[in-house]
Design a protein that fits this description.
The chain is of the alpha+beta class. It is built from eight helices and four strands. A four-stranded antiparallel sheet has the order 2-3-1-4, with helices on both faces.
Length: 228
């Protein structure tokens, strides 16, 4: 099945994923991890894309972003890709592609799904068996949002601010939300949305996004196609 064209809606939350070619590692050392996250932050700033959250695994990178312009995320990810592949190939004496084709992304209804999507990112290392608890993983934004570290490159989303009236209240509320975890249905919905480019939101939100594009934004219902 051909991949749908990527959606890009200025001012809306997007979940972006970039994977390594053939599921191979995109980072080998902590220096690689620092370099890739630095490139992400720098290009996000250059192309006016708010970086809300991230998790960097050995073979894939997930980002939660809000662009100001229609092409902001595309330009950002292209620039990150060029800079990092050049860095990685030079350092590790290799050539050729590093990425599994184009990055994948989808639009997310922030009011309904931001916190669960942040939890999804934070819990990926736990699900992969790398750590027992999210705060033990150094390469995600989790520790920033629970008050254990600082990163001025991150832009907290307004929905996160609504978790409490003080930084401490927000950190406690978010930490509890991560401890609660996600249901299998929530996890599968997020995975499917980013893999296939389906909008993650309630029916009204999906319908509103559909008005803004000619491509399909949700999974087709089973059955025969309509007659033309």
């Amino acid at each position: 099945m051909a991949r749908l064209p990527r959606l890009s809606i200025p001012g809306s939350l997007h979940h972006v994923m970039q994977r390594g070619n053939n599921h191979e590692a995109i980072v080998k050392t902590d220096a690689d991890r620092r370099a890739l996250l630095t490139f992400v932050a720098e290009q996000a700033l250059q192309f006016r894309v708010a970086l809300h959250a991230y998790v960097l695994m050995d073979a894939h990178l997930h980002l939660l972003l809000t662009p100001v312009t229609h092409d902001g995320i595309s330009l950002m990810m292209q620039a990150v890709g060029r800079r990092y592949v050049r860095y990685f190939n030079d350092l590790h004496h290799r050539s050729g592609t590093l990425w599994d084709g184009r990055y994948r992304s989808t639009v997310v209804q922030a009011e309904r799904h931001l916190i669960s999507d942040m939890c999804f990112l934070d819990l990926l290392p736990v699900r992969a068996g790398l750590v027992a608890q999210a705060e033990q993983y150094a390469w995600s934004s989790h520790r920033i949002y629970v008050g254990q570290a600082q990163d001025k490159r991150l832009v907290p989303h307004p929905v996160y601010w609504n978790l409490g009236n003080t930084p401490f209240a927000r950190e406690i509320a978010y930490a509890e939300r991560v401890r609660e975890g996600l249901s299998e249905a929530q996890t599968q919905a997020i995975e499917a949305s980013v893999l296939h480019g389906w909008v993650l939101g309630d029916p009204d939100f999906v319908a509103e996004i559909q008005k803004q594009t000619s491509r399909r934004v949700s999974k087709a219902r089973p059955g025969r196609p309509p007659l033309r």
